[in-house]
Design goal:
InterPro entries: SAM-dependent_MTases_sf (IPR029063). This is Methyltransferase domain-containing protein. The longest helix is centred in the N-terminal third of the chain and has 15 residues. Helices cover 23% and strands 13% of the residues. The protein is built from four helices and four strands, in the order αααβαβββ. By secondary structure, the protein is an alpha/beta fold.
């Protein structure tokens, strides 16, 4: 299987910045100090309210972010202040770790690993997550994937 992303784009600091800005534009996360990360204005949410309504609060929510890139989504979830997500366990995976932020810059509830979403899901991961985030994953796939 080819790496469409690597064929068309570089995995470097400039690409990390572009991806983070793109995510922030889509969610309109404001970098201004007077705006809290939970005040999302573009699509209106990080996690759709219907999903949040269905999460069981008898255990910490476990979220997977496939094609996580810079882990921006997971970082925003960690900062959201939403009571449903307060103790969330956040797992991000990507085909390459090249865009992962340094581990010491991430909150302790964010864990990143290498995983090819085009390959069969490892048995150990099946049934693990309360929900799986795949926003914009299509950009890195071909019709055959």
């Amino acid at each position: 299987m080819s790496d469409v992303y690597a064929t068309n784009l570089r995995r470097d600091a400039k690409e990390s910045e572009r991806l983070d800005e793109q995510f922030d534009l889509l969610t309109e996360y404001s970098k201004h100090a007077n705006h809290h990360p939970s005040s999302i204005k573009n699509i209106g949410y990080l996690v759709h309210p219907l999903i949040l309504d269905r999460l069981l609060l008898d255990h910490p929510v476990v979220i997977a972010d496939l094609a996580t890139g810079t882990a921006r989504f997971l970082q925003r979830i960690s900062q959201s202040g939403n009571p449903c997500l307060k103790n969330a366990i956040l797992h991000g995976s990507d085909l390459s770790p090249a865009l992962f932020p340094p581990p010491n810059t991430l909150p302790s509830n964010i864990h990143l690993s290498v995983l090819d979403v085009r390959a069969p899901v490892p048995a150990a991961l099946q049934g693990t997550y309360d929900f799986v985030h795949v926003r914009q994953i299509a950009a890195g796939l071909t019709p055959d994937d």
